[in-house]
Design brief:
Blueprint (H helix, E strand, L loop, with lengths): L3 H15 L5 E3 L6 H7 L6 E5 L2 E6 L2 E6 L5 E6 L11 E5 L2 E6 L3 E5 L1 H9 L13 H8 L5 H6 L9 H10 L13 H21 L41 E5 L2 E5 L7
Antiparallel strand pairs: 1-6, 2-3, 3-4, 4-8, 5-7, 6-7, 9-10
The chain binds a DNA duplex (13 and 13 nucleotides) through helix 6.
Length: 264
DNA sequence: GCAAAATGTCAAG
DNA sequence: TTGACCTTTTGCA
């Protein structure tokens, strides 16, 4: 489930489990083997996330990972299981292991190369001091639909298809509205809301965007089906106005919205 | 046993 | 704008 909150959680977990001690880094699949040797056995300093990118610092070499659509980590304590399938990268420490499969990017970089990647990313709502100003500067001068701009990692980093659709619904924004027509006060409210939503996602590991009054509750726990307003709810009645939720492709990604609540 | 789908990005044309 | 790519899981025959 790789939207930004997932990566920040992984950074935190991996730091807690591995930082401060040597890590055996291997590539059972072989595709990362040569580069793995560059950091194998080194002490891990810290793992950080920026948007959907993960950076593991081993002194002056940094393992950069981007999960893409399919990438996944598995982790555990004690002895690692026998490698199976396409296992790109494995870390093993005294009492912890983690396996990476299917990432879009898994490479060893110099710190200067990391700077280049971060420099082309927009502000991250999960940064310690989030600031959406730079994002709005780009939005305000773009004719592109706001739904496309929100997914552009150079505008905001960390938003994926779920947060995109849900944020637009919560602010009753028509997805095809050109960025330049959004307005600064609307953006300010959206950014603040996004920070709140993603911090909750970071805490819980789940994306829950529905307000309590718009969903049913079962013993306090939010049912998966109740967690979203529009994402993957094509044809189902809107939780607010009962109009069927609509879906269309935009820049090759599925975009969900309520034609009534987000009319315009 | 195979096709389709999944919360993403990049480069070619 | 389109297609390529990364891998696993799910659903249908």
């Amino acid at each position: 489930m790789p939207e930004g909150h997932t990566l920040h959680r992984l950074a935190r977990e991996q730091t807690a489990r591995f930082a401060g001690a040597p890590v055996a880094v291997t590539s059972p699949q072989g595709r990362f083997a040569e580069q793995a040797a560059l950091v194998d056995g080194r002490v891990l300093d810290v793992v950080t996330a920026h948007g959907k990118h993960l950076f593991a610092a081993f002194s002056d070499r940094v393992v950069h990972v981007h999960l893409g659509l399919f990438g996944k980590y598995a982790a555990g304590t004690g002895e690692p299981p026998a490698p199976r399938g396409a296992l790109r990268m494995r870390w093993v420490a005294d009492d912890a292991w983690t396996d990476l499969r299917g990432p879009t990017a898994c490479e060893v970089l110099a710190p200067s190369e990391v700077e280049v990647i971060i420099a082309r990313l927009g502000p991250d709502p999960l940064a310690r001091r989030p600031d959406g100003g730079a994002a709005y500067a780009r939005i305000a001068r773009s004719r592109a639909p706001i739904a496309a701009l929100l997914m552009d990692q150079a505008v905001v980093s960390g938003i994926g298809n779920v947060y995109r659709a849900e944020l637009l619904f919560r602010h009753q924004v028509p997805p095809l509205l050109p960025g330049r027509d959004l307005g600064g006060s609307r953006w300010t409210a959206m950014w603040a809301d996004l920070v709140t939503l993603m911090r909750a996602g970071l805490r819980t590991g789940r994306i829950v965007t529905t307000r309590p009054e718009d969903r049913d509750r079962i013993s306090g726990r939010v049912r998966q089906l109740d967690a979203h307003y529009v994402y993957r709810r094509t044809g189902l009645p809107c939780r607010v106005c009962r109009t069927p939720i609509a879906m269309q492709l935009l820049v090759a990604r599925k975009l969900y919205w309520c034609p009534q609540c987000q009319a315009g």
